[in-house]
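Standup notes
- DV: blocked on the single-chain target, sequence here:
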Amino acid sequence: MHDYDLLVIGAGPAGAAAALAAARAGLRVALADRHAFPRNKLCGGGVTGRARAEAMALLGRPLPPSLLEPRGRFAFYAGGAALGEIKGVPPVWMTTRMGFDAHLVEAALAAGAADHTGRPVAEVEPDAPAVRFRDGDRLTARLIVGADGANSVVARALYGIPFDPARIGFALEVEAPPPDAPEDAPVRIDFGAADWGYGWSFPKSGSTTVGVGGLHARNPAMKTAMRAYMDLLDVDSARVKVQGAFVPFGEVRRKPGRGAVLLTGDAAGLVDPVTGEGIAYALASGRMAGEAAARALAEGRPETALGQYHRALKPIRRSLGQARLLQHVIHGSALRDGFLSAFRRSGRLRYDYMRMLAGEMEYGDIALRTVRRLPALASRALAARLSPARG
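- DV (later): unblocked, structure below
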């Protein structure tokens, strides 16, 4: 007899979603995290329409208005030069991860999950399966869900390292003072503020989240890039604390787990490689893992949970694969200048970008349109590279 049917390690959006879905299905669930909630979490705090819809479907009710601040004005830049501004598009909601994550954890606990938050994990035993906490306590379960982020202890137990250092992303971020009128301030995106990445400024009523992120291997001077971006936005570096975190930019695992262990969210590499957004995929993958665990245990075949979960992830994996193709267009040196030129000229391209964030378009649609534009993008990129020589 195991202590639990399902042990979820990590209580962010992926873990809370897994625990909530499994508990609602009648499983005995333990939800563990090294932090007690509410807790701070490095994140821009932008909740896309896709993520908001997934959260509401999971909870079965709207999110409290106090958690979300809608923003419908967006300004895009590259190298400090304006690419254009857009309004009247599907909004992005600003939140704090302290409040957002705590709300999801409360829902999982209310559904019946046992609270083991505030308990750091010392060791994961994938084959038992079991976990031992630093306080010496050991819990066993029939299945484990690893939802403990890019530095996943669970993934480390499975593979020796939690991620590929050559392909991981990295981000730096600060909480600056809020703008005078946050409801009117634009969400700002700066392409190229970091190599193979971007910078962001997210206005909120209590602060402005400012950060830069990109592929870690291509940004050995990320701190310098962050200082330059803060200077550009007039952020007083003496009054803010810079924090950093690894971000698995589309580094999707071929198989999200092993044996009785399922990996979700950042631990499975389910992060958009173009935007760095991971909340929507964390919520979806956590829910799918919890549902797969419930089905497999109801059938008396826990060994099938990973396969069921892997199949459920196919649409997400397909979308992230298409996003990786666009990542090369947006950030790669060969076509980047052409893309930025098109983005500057085409309000439709900017509008499609926002519709994708809202969940109204899939990456496949944008990828197809981008492929059709490739000859024009290549021509514009060549023209941009030759223009200094002409002058």
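- Follow-up: The chain has a mean pLDDT of 90.
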